[in-house]
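Hello, quick one for you while I still have it in my head. A protein chain has come my way and I'm curious about its shape. Can you walk me through what the tokens say about the fold? No rush at all, and the record is pasted right below.
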Amino acid sequence: MTKDLDHALDESLTLLAEGRATLEECLARYPEHAAELRPLLETALQLRRAPRPTSRPAAFAAGKQRMLQALEEKKRRLASPSSSLRRPGWIAALLGRKEETRRGYPSFQLRWVMTAATALILLVATGFLLLSWLQTPVARAATLAQVSGVVEILPEGEQTWRPAAVGERVEPGDRIRTGPASAALLRFFNGSTTDIGAETVISVVQMSSRRVGGHEVVVLHQWVGESYYHVQPLPDPASEFKVETPAAITRVRGTVFAVIVEEDGTTDVVVIEGKVDVIAQERVVQVPAGQGTTVQPEHPPVPARPTDVATPTPWPTATPSPTSTLSPVPTSTPSATPSATPYIEEEMPEGHDEEMEPTEEPTEESDHHTPEPTETPEESEEGEDRYETPEPTETPDNDQETPEPTEMPGDEETPEPTKYPGDGGGDNGTPEPSPTPGDDDDHDGDSGGMDSPDGRAGWTEPLEAYLMLPLHTPEGAIRSIQTSI
């Protein structure tokens, strides 16, 4: 506690004791020590208002008289010899105790008065200590209600940042920072909230309140970035909510405002609801709703001016999923079970030892007609089937061209053989065969006849060579016909 604070406290206590000033007037005299003076002056006023134990004059006189009588009785017992020595021990002890009890009535009352006075003093002292204990500020904590993106926390006394989680406890001395496109919602013990924007660093300097409530103090330090503050109305004049930046201090009592801190420390304060006091370089600028101010490092704040009021983007809330409506489950319709086809045992012909395979049972969905049974082929005398099942032939490809049939020679009449002219025109000469119609092998127009060695057309080979022709040639076919004739 500095000398200035000691002097301010003494002066304020003197003014309050003499009734020359109220509590608020004393705080107004020393605004730089208002936060420290308020709890001290409030405690002094409460002590002055506490009831003091007082005693009535008649009760005091009666107590004094009983005390004097007890002293005289004690002196008289000590001066006179005790009668208990002349009596039997047990009788003297009994009578002596009765007499002591009878004569000790005033002493009992005095003892009761002293006990009651002591209990009253202890009660007053205990009440005072209890009141002081309840009014002592205690540290409070905040909670991270929402986390989006990269949000890290640096607990007090540690050197390593670690990822923050929803529901994590934030205590005085902790530091929070957010990355690009990230955000966090910090909820304080008194219901106030702070929406921390992207690339923002905030330290929790102080969070405290009395055990019985009141005197709520929240002090934050915003190093850089953008944040929106929603401060609940404070319960008493001793409560405060402050946001410190490298250039200014923003003090509120219940409002909604935004604080933007640039890299160089320049601070912009925009008020959305209520009003705030912006303090820098011992100058206070009050900023109402819809206005803002700018504070540069080592400069006083500029006067408040109208500005565009920006509201924080609301956190997305989970859309409740609709409850599933139970739909009726269709029951399966019993279908008629097809009866089994009765098996008719047929007599197998003798010699047919092969076991016939049963055909497939037709179903209701099948569109095929049941084929008519075929007759069993009769057996031959040798006991074998008359007909053998031919092996299926391969189906020729459709792409194969069918060869054109070759032209066969027409049915031409075979000319009668001419007689060889002999001497005298007799019939004794061997007739020469006429040329066989066919292909003109030597392409000389003689219908297939061979030329003679001397060039004569229509020359034929001897009959023996002619008969040696194969049957599948046209010449062989003609030879077969001629032979049959």
Q: What stands out?
A: Residues 249 and 279 are 5 Å apart (CA to CA). The two ends are 160 Å apart (CA to CA). The longest helix spans residues 105-135.
